[in-house]
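Table S5 (text form). Sequence records supplied for joint modeling of the two-component complex.
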Amino acid sequence: MVEKHTIIITVMNSPGVLARISGLLFQRGYNIESAIGAPTEDPDVYKVILVVQESDDHIEQIVKQLNKLIGTLRVVDISHKDNYIVREYIILKLEVQQKNRTDLLELARHFNAHVIDIETDHIIMELSGNPRKIDRFIELIHPFGIKEYVRSGEFAMSEYQKSKKGEKNGD
Amino acid sequence: MKGAEIVIDALKKEGVNTIFGYPGGVMIPIFDVLYSTPEIRFLLTRHEQGAVHAADGYARSTGKVGVCMVTSGPGATNTITGIATAKMDSIPLVILSGQVHTNSIGTDAFQETDMVGLTRSICKHNYLIKDVNDLAKTIKEAFYIARSGRPGPVSIDLPVNVLNSKVKNYVYPEHIHLPGYKPVIQGNPMQIEKLARAIERAKKPLLYTGGGIISSDATEALHELLDKTQIPIVVTLMGLGSVPYDHPCFLGMPGMHGTIAANKALTECDLLIAVGVRFDDRVTGPLHTFAQQATIAHIDIDAAEIGKNVKTHLPIVGDAAHVLKELTKRVKPRLRDAWNERTEYWKERFPTRFAQKDQGPIIPQYVIDALNQVIDPEAIVVTDVGQHQMWAALYHHFRKPRHFLSSGGLGTMGFGLPAAMGAALGNPDKQVVCIVGDGGLQMNIQELATCAINRLPVKIIVINNAYLGMVRQWQDLFWDKKYSQVCLMRGPDCPQECRGMDEHCPSDYIPDFVKVAEANHVKGLRVSKPSEVVSTLKKGLQDPGPVLMEFMVSREENVYPMVSAGKPLTDILTGEE
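The corresponding structure-token record, covering 748 residues in total, follows.
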């Protein structure tokens, strides 16, 4: 079954690491929906968070191939794990008319979206949260007239867990 | 110490005494150091593709890491085919390419090319070194990565200013720090135990082994398992030589041009023990028809190979030699039984054969079969790619690992001659025989000069049918005999549509290989009569120098057995219907 998978790749920080990862997926015929790469608390370590739409078989192969990259420290598919905090960030530019401005702001308030810029004919706002919340917000705000939006792609981190015997924090 | 000196010192520390390559502008600093480094032998090929295949042939035949050194731009891009060839067949290479000054990278400078970008998908790993302080560490890592785990090519791009920069306190590092890279060597004991039990339960166990046996030096471990269990075995192209051709358990090569016995055994077995193989499409045919009766156990050092193509019931990640030794310890002895007899019956009932008449043209298979009578049993046989390659796989008498070198995964025409050259350089005491088609030979024929000048006594057997025979065979069998661009004698006077030879065909083959050989100071011999095949082979093999023996063979011979593309392994064409 094809479904969305979010994969966290922890790698050694080296030049071209993001190209290595995206190149690998492309080379093997898989499509990346979103990819975020950024440094971590350890300057030697870099994290990449990928979202791909693939079947379970393909995901298994993707995870194995990613693990094979020389600098890979760990690869986790968090799609079926509930102990991860997943977030996404979005900036939206909306066309706005006098008559629906209040409804729009009300909706934004409801979602905790933050208004960055407001003019007579447009509003720019930002929102972060669970990707499902972002999807829902886009859906509801769509009728107001979206001019443009930019999504960050998903990023995620494991919840804090008190270490039990033989169990590491995270996964 | 200068970067260029560090490179050469690092190579020496890695035990390198042979480099294959070609110089160029940005690499002059290294060649300047090589100038006064007599302990490293540099084989100057006539093309960078020749260099990388030669390094590959050297690596395959010696088990060492092959080293190839080329300049930036075209020098680097000319190695691409060879790197991809080595990657597909898991051959350890280190490719050192020059690069423009780090300040010029990205400006489309003279002879600049993005080698790291180009090789990313065809390398095990690659590097661009921007700081001379990283040089020694990187070279050490590269060699370790190339030869450990599942071996493969590693490319290092060396900007000219890095080669010219100096390091104050140079020490070659003793340790490697690669926290993300830890090949699994020991297999999981519980899984191995499970496999041992599965073998005891199986009525029709079958071993299916490949290049992994050779790269992990697991031949001895495999033989011990065979001695204890008598399990019938099929060996892929990449594994040929790991089991002697006359071993009672050996059923031959499986797959598209495999033996009937091997393919029948794969189809009927109830336990398939795959070791160091990757279930290549040329072996399996359509996956939903492959080994349907069998529980599949897969031993491989590369976890990503397990379950990639077929569903595996018993995965074991580990080094073939370690796992097989452990398995042999745990498995109960198995006696020859009805299953062994059945597989042997297939071997006898469906031998791979050909018919050579005393008169008339030479049959290509006959040349390869006749070679068995005269070749040194210790000889290394190298092939190119195509029909002759499959005939060699079917008819040559394999005796030892690392004595049959062939481009398997990528199927690279032009591999044969330079790879044979590399094997000859790495094995000066051994006879090296290169079997090659007339098409493939012309793809790297410039290396005849390299053989002659360096006194590399490669014995070249050209199977000349004046066709790109394997493609012609497909056009013959599956494309209504429309011979489109496969005839190497075709000229402007030929009809647009050609379905084979007739009396109007051009009479002369161009080039005259014997003359090309002689022009390169390689002895040239040509044979057209079956009665002269054995005597010519003898004469050629006895000569101390390089020899090219050209066999003018019947043009439209096909390779059989053959399983058509997309058909199950039971659907075998024998050519005798």
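Note: The longest strand of chain A covers residues 84-95.
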